[in-house]
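Why do we care about 3D structure at all? Because function follows from shape, and shape follows, mostly, from sequence. That is the central idea of this module. The next example makes it concrete: a single protein chain, its amino acid sequence, and then its structure expressed as tokens.
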Amino acid sequence: MSGQELELLPQKAVFWINAQTLIVSDLHLGKAGHFRKSGIPAPSGINQKNIERLDDLMQRYTPGRLLMLGDLFHSDANREWLEFEQFTDKWSFVEMLLIRGNHDSLHPSFYKAAGITGVDALEESGFLFLHDETQENFEKNGDETIILSGHIHPGIVLRGKGRQSLRLPCFAASRSRILLPAFGEFTGLHMIKPKPGEQIYAVAEGRVLPL
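And the structure:
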């Protein structure tokens, strides 16, 4: 997009420089707690680690807005939402906007108490922000619009000699879209193949690597 600068970050986020906006997708906070409540083993402390990673980015980039592209919280409210509220209290002076995803089913009072505004989509400065780019009820305002979305937790397989392979989260970028990896660490990956004219950027060892 002419005049607009986006920085792909190795923390699986995007910083929109012009708008001083930090963009993340698919945190799925509370997922580990939801699994443990159901008797399914899940790593402890993963929720707090995700919040700490987000807090580190907020401190590094000091954005005026945090834009979350859906699936902020994975399930019904549990104590891990209270951990996230400590984060939102700390950054209450920053605008927080949530593009609602399929997992964002908490009662509106939770988001209001955390200072988060929820919308179905946002179109701004030639970008259309969605949770899922396949949503049919949103149309781009012209061919120059670029869609930013998440939802599928994209990953790429790198193959080495023999049967060696490595699965990595990735960004996928083209003239019409930017697909973000899931920010949350307990989310899994969906392997994708580049579309024609699309550039894949793998996230590995603290770097964003064009493939």
